[in-house]
Amino acid sequence: MSSWRNLRLKDLCIDAGQYGLNVSAETYVQSGVRLLRTTDISSGVLTPDESGVFVETVPEARFTLTAGDLLLSRSGTPPGQSYLVRPADAGMTFAGYLVRFRPRSNADPRFLAYVARSAPFQHTIQAESVSSTIQNFNAERYANIRVAAPDVTQQRRIADFLDAATSRIDALRDLSLRQTNLLAHRLQELMRRETSAGRHRTVKTGVPWMPEMAESWKLFKVSREFRTASGTTPTSTHEHYYTGPHPWVNSSDVRDSVIEHVEKSVTDEALQEFPALKLIPAGSLVVALYGQGATKGRVGILTMDACLNQACCALIPSGDISTEYAYYWFRAHKEGIVAQAVGAGQPNLSQELMRELRIPAPDRAAQREIVRRLSAQEAQISAQIKLLQRRDALLRERRRSLITSAVTGQFDVTTASGRNVTEGVSA
User: Fold this and answer.
1) Residue 134: pLDDT over 90
2) The last residue of a domain, from among 361, 378, 397
């Protein structure tokens, strides 16, 4: 590394960083100039235009992006996310929580983009971040981060090598993701088939999102097969309510699995002072009525007596349908169930809606056999998915290590074939 120089980021750029536009959402328009935000680059890949926002014009040339610009986020969890502007992105602009660095002629933009993703660069950001309610890393701090760099010709060689090597790794990661999605889809179809028709002759149900059921089965209304209950949230500022022995389930604890551990518990005093807070017996099915992301519609089976908050609904078995069978039916038909949610803004499910649902089912003995088959299939598929996730984690770490080693001169890329970049990671 004798030919490498120890510089600051600003030494390789035309300035010490340019903050983006500070504009309010009220100024967004349907079409115009795309305004890139931290959320648009958080994965390192630009999100599609359909999820982007636009402004009418760019007020000054310094806010217009050109190919090769490097965008760094100064906030977020964590800060330090980066994006290299492509030729197709030229002419776009960027928001105030992003900082634009434009490489000089003695710096290869791709090399700088890889440097921004290297371990030393990221460690510097994490170590120096200012923490309050949100982490922040300003332009001056970015500009003064130390960067070791060879001449621009060697930078290009390193960037060429990493382009090829990371592409191979990314292709393997894409394959892992496709295989994982296929396995998840296979399990979903197995659950749907087993809890609606199996291999039997079918009849129409009259339910658009569950059009058929086995001819010999019955269609049971949830309100006749289960008692429903919900809960509430004790005053959050009274910490003494949350130091008791009774598990308190909220929607984030419901994850399409058995519920064995929860984040919070409540006291006997909380149960006495909040009548809506009741203990739900173990063996009940809990449905998440609302929550962030994919939480809404998830289910879980209680393994202990527990209380719920108002975002959950318990189905307490009292009829001919077992909790375990209902658990798989709800998972199989989540999309159709969630589509019934009502309300302005963010529609939610409700106890009333749960009681009106109809579940096709055979007799108890047949339900047990269906649950046994699905449980075995799920265990097998879950094991395969875990192997794929482990492989993806190894590939992700290999990618990070390769980038760091290359941009810090730990090996000579001119003598590295790149064919062994995934060595030790089974296909």
Assistant:
1) no
2) 361
